Amino acid sequence: MAVPRGSLRSFLSRAKSALRSSISNKSPLTLVIGNESADLDSITCSILYAYLQSSAPTAGRQVRLHVPLLNIPRADIALRPELLALLPHANVDADHLITLDDLPDLARIGSELPPDITRWILVDHNALQGTLGSVYSKRVVGVIDHHDDEGKVPQDTGDEPRIITKSGSCTSLVTNYSRDAWDRLSTNALSSGAAHGQDDSLADDSAVTTLWDAQVAHLAMASILIDTHDLTDENKTTDHDRKAVEYLAAKVNMSPRISKDFDRGMFFTKLSDAKRDVDSLSLTDILRKDYKQWSEGDQTLGMSSVVKPVDYLQRKASEATTQQDGKVDVQVSERATTQQDSKVDGAFMGAIKDFAAERNLDIFGIMTTFTADDGSFARELLVISPSETGATSVKKFVDNSSAELKLEEVDGRNEDKTLLRYWRQKNVSCSRKQVAPMLRKAMSMQQ
Ligand SMILES: [Mn+2]
Question: Which of residues 212 and 207 earns the better pLDDT score?
Fold first, then answer.
């Protein structure tokens, strides 16, 4: 079933009710899902893909309603201040978003949402992880992604895309893939008068459809700007990203109502400031905010990406332990951007060991990014391993990758059977997208 062209807001409401009725009637369902870190990129590219493919015919393909699914529980939306800052620009409320809470309970999901009625499109990852992966990975019909190809999606995806290529943001790839469909949608809406009567405050159909386009364009542009530092990060920005931003800026400029107030630099700064403002979050929430997990054989790796240095996290941990009620409401000072190179202390070590133990991890890695005192972009990598096999994998990783990553040790020891390594990562061009595969390779060498 194709849906008539409407705003993103009305599309998300329709998609949510379609999901509900598919679950109760066992009727066919197509889902578009980003990765389980559910960063801004994963969220926006799944929504963009679902919105455009649900409304716009692509040659040779049946038009179906696509449901965009955030790969997190609803409560975790609150951990993403940059998303909350962005949603008003797209005229969407957090309640409109569709999350894992809208699926049946994971313990019964295979019977309540049988795999054979589902089709899955993966965006911003190319191997479905966890429970969803074990139940639905054979039902993946298409992928658009910018991570290393894990070879899990069949080479021939028929009418559906199989695009896996390097770009700063996956949303750029989805934007570029969808531009013909989007342009047809804008034109069709204008000629058919589909928008008529949906927004009385606007003078004519053209104003309505250009407004809807501008709102969707904001949503998409946000991730590309965040992932490429407003197209200035040379290590990340590709032609895909530049091309997509140019196209999206044109969509914004088509709307007289939106374009008069739009300033790309200010838009980027607003989102970037929101993303870096984690002072109100607890240490555990900061670690959960952008977290991914993988299994290799019988070992499990978890990795958190964090927008503050280890020193900041250490102070969060020690302040948390001095709070009677366990709530962190003390502001950690912005000395945080200064790299202190502190040794890892007891409170922090305890907190990250607990985090790893709760998830049964063999290796837990934390990658930090921040601006150093001299204004340069800096990275750190910290790894703990509470298991013997994990520790062996970490040593292999060090042998194989420390030269490439230019790791400089800040702290390293074994404590109560837990191995700890903490480095400055001088090769700042490698993010989790590169470092996780290096760790996973070291893990798989032990199988
Ligand atoms: Mn991404």
Answer: 212
Task: Collect all residues with Cβ–Cβ distance below 8 Å to 140 and sequence separation of at least 6.
Answer: 120, 121, 122, 128, 152, 153
Q: Provide DSSP, 311-332.
A: HHHHHHHHHHHH-TTS---SPP
CATH no. of 283-444: 3.10.310.20
The confidence score (pLDDT) of residue 329 equals: 47
Ligand 1: distance of its center to the CA of 121 in Å?
15
CA 392 – ligand 1 centroid, Å: 30
**How far apart (Å, rounded) are the C-alpha atoms in residues 7 and 290?**
29
C-beta atoms surrounding 182 within 10 Å: 23
Q: Is residue 59 very low, low, confident or very high in pLDDT (cuts 50, 70, 90)? A: low
The Cα–Cα gap between 279 and 262 comes to: 28
Do 8-272 and 283-444 share a fold? no
Cα of 214 from ligand 1 centre, angstroms: 22
Distance 275 CA to ligand 1 centre (A): 15
Question: What are the residue boundaries of the structural domains of the chain, listed by start?
Answer: 8-272, 283-444
Q: How far is the CA of 220 from the centre of ligand 1 (A)?
A: 12
pLDDT > 70 fraction of the chain, expressed in percent and rounded: 90
Two tokens at 362?
Answer: 């063999």
- CA 251 – ligand 1 centroid, Å: 22
Q: How far is ligand 1, taken at its centre, from the CA of residue 165, in Å?
A: 11
* pLDDT-based confidence at residue 336 (cuts at 50, 70, 90): very low
Q: What does residue 421 show for φ and ψ, rounded to 5 degrees?
A: -135, 135
pLDDT at 58: 67
Contact 283, 320 (CB under 8 A): yes
Tokens 């838009």 correspond to 267
Q: Which long-range contacts (CB under 8 A, 24 or more apart) does 127-130 make?
A: 127/152, 127/153, 128/33, 128/152, 129/35, 129/36, 129/292, 129/293, 129/294, 130/36, 130/293
**Architecture in CATH of 8-272:** Alpha-Beta Complex (3.90)
